[in-house]
Design a protein that fits this description.
The structure is a homotetramer.
Chain A lengths: L1 E8 L15 H16 L4 H6 L6 E8 L8 E8 L7 E9 L5 E9 L13 H10 L5
Antiparallel strand pairs in A: 1-3, 2-5, 3-4, 4-5
């Protein structure tokens, strides 16, 4: 398993008339979180780009449990629990800082695409980076 | 069943470096589509607001099949196939104009909230509007 | 002068807690408006892209006079009043449909960039398209 | 003068097909920066909200000098150089981390609105907070 906690401050741009975060914004927080999770295993997404590879989102899901509000600080935990064979699933849980209550949770599923724009297996350098950081949590 | 087709033109604001629509933007198109679907049954969402009611999103999902590109015109079809008892599910299918290929599809699930901010049954005026426009498609 | 009116429906994604459109969103409406203005003179921006040219924004400005609200229909008028020699200025005025009250107005200034990524003069095909549609308004 | 540096990491959500940040996004970074500048003088914007006051944007401007790219870390410096009598002007300069080259700069002008929704003078608690932190820079 790899895991990372990313902090997000809620701004006016994020909230709607009900005073809570607009529902599609959570997917932007998911992106921020997975971006930093990849960096945490020494494989920033720019490495994929340099080699012409990509990891396009093929599915996304979010469950909204409580509305996050303006100026809240959210902790977006992202994790990968299954070693990827073809696609990779990243799971996210969002809590307010210093709180156990879950605001929202969800996942994204990503395919892999090589420099020719074709669907591919996960690149070897990615699997190696995952292996190096993979830990058992009990 | 109620059903509505809404047209969206893709702009630079929508696309990312890969030249395709950024994944969270589809949820904004879903909002545009359901907004117009409600108007098409003579119940614009502003009617909910006037009465203090709301229809917050509690789940959202999207499957990305093909990337939509800058200046594409997309047809976002939204539909409700099950008459709502507590929550309502709205389904969306996105195609390029004059094409049968599905770009993306997904759904949103909405709860109902009354003027006191409490979870509630679907309001009667909403059920009546649905009934009036409900049609069988074979 | 060239001129075009573009219609925009305000959604939940656009508004903030004060119930009015978030200030940066107007620049997205400006993009939508200039996109359609270019199409109206038979030169959709995709034509620039096919030739490797671009028209990057170098300055943008907006004055907010009245807040636009959820479900409002806005008319975004864009116009070019000065024939471009190096850069081009596009001006925008936003009103609610069937109203003379100005919600917001502003401008964007664009440079021209050729296929080599260098600053350039406005391309000839663009000047021709402007000339063909240029009209005097009194 | 009050002054604050805020850090922003560029994500895929921010960039467009040219690989650079979409022009309206800079105004979101401006909001993030002024939000943290207010917190730095012990007056988070939530304090305005608690009292029913608001500081709506009435003008915004940005000059784009260089394109910021995916995964760049930007330093958004915001400052107030003139003590506000009616409106307040906040200026922003954006640089890449560890670089002196200016990516973009601009300003926002804000009015003040009281709990009755009327234009007002800057509230006393705001002027006091500014005074307390006001410094001369030479």
């Amino acid at each position: 398993m790899i895991k990372f906690n990313h902090k997000v401050r809620i701004l006016y741009r994020d909230i709607d008339y009900m005073g809570i975060v607009y529902y599609s914004r959570y997917f932007e927080y998911f992106e921020a979180a997975r971006n930093e999770m990849l960096r945490s295993i020494d494989l920033p997404y720019t490495e994929f780009e340099k080699r012409g590879d990509a990891m396009p989102v093929v599915e996304s899901y979010c469950k909204y449990r409580e509305g996050a509000r303006y100026d809240d600080v959210l902790i977006v935990s992202s994790k990968v629990t299954e070693f990827p064979h073809s696609r990779i699933k990243i799971e996210y849980t969002i809590r307010r800082q210093n709180s156990d209550i879950i605001i929202a949770d969800g996942y994204t599923i990503h395919a892999f695409m090589n420099a020719k724009g074709r669907a591919s297996k996960p690149p070897t350098y990615f699997l190696k980076a995952l292996e190096k950081s993979w830990k058992d949590y009990e």
